[in-house]
Write a structure and sequence with these properties.
Blueprint lengths: L2 H25 L6 H97 L1
Helix pairs in contact: 1-2
C-alpha cells in the first residue's frame, strides 16, 4: 500500500475512533463502565497509530539508506570527475607551455630567416654590381 493511501486510511480510522469514543461517552449515560469502554476505544485507536507510525518509519529509514547510498555513489563520481578535470588542466597547462616554446622558436626562426634574406639580398646586390 502506498503512503498516501495509508495516511488516508489512518486519518479515517482516527476519526472513527474519536467518533466512537464520543458516542460511547454521550450515549452510555450514567453507566459506570463508560470511562472503561471509552478508554479501551482510545487505546485501540492509539495502537493503530503506533502500528502506522512504525510502518511509516521503517519505510522512511529504508528510503534514507537508499538515498545515502546514492549520495555516496555521487560523491565518488564527483571525486573521479574532479581528478579527471585536474589531470586535463595539467595536460592543458603542459600543452600551453609547449605552444609558448614553439611560438618563441618560430619567432627566432623568422628572425633568422629575415637575417638570411637580408644577407642573400646583399650578396645578390653585390653579385649584380660586379656583373
Amino acid at each position: 500500500m502506498d503512503r498516501k493511501k495509508m495516511e488516508t486510511l489512518v486519518l479515517i480510522i482516527g476519526t472513527l475512533v474519536v467518533a466512537a469514543a464520543l458516542t460511547m461517552y454521550f450515549v452510555m449515560g450514567d453507566n459506570p463502565s463508560k470511562p472503561l469502554y471509552t478508554n479501551i476505544v482510545f487505546a485501540v485507536g492509539f495502537l493503530c497509530y503506533i502500528a502506522y507510525n512504525t510502518i511509516t518509519t521503517s519505510g522512511l529509514q529504508k528510503e534514507i539508506k537508499e538515498l545515502n547510498g546514492h549520495i555516496d555513489g555521487l560523491k565518488t563520481e564527483l571525486e573521479e570527475r574532479r581528478a579527471d578535470i585536474a589531470r586535463l588542466e595539467q595536460n592543458l597547462s603542459a600543452k600551453d607551455d609547449e605552444l609558448k616554446a614553439k611560438t618563441e622558436e618560430a619567432s627566432k626562426l623568422e628572425a633568422d630567416l629575415e637575417g638570411l634574406q637580408k644577407d642573400f639580398d646583399a650578396l645578390k646586390a653585390e653579385g649584380e654590381a660586379k656583373t
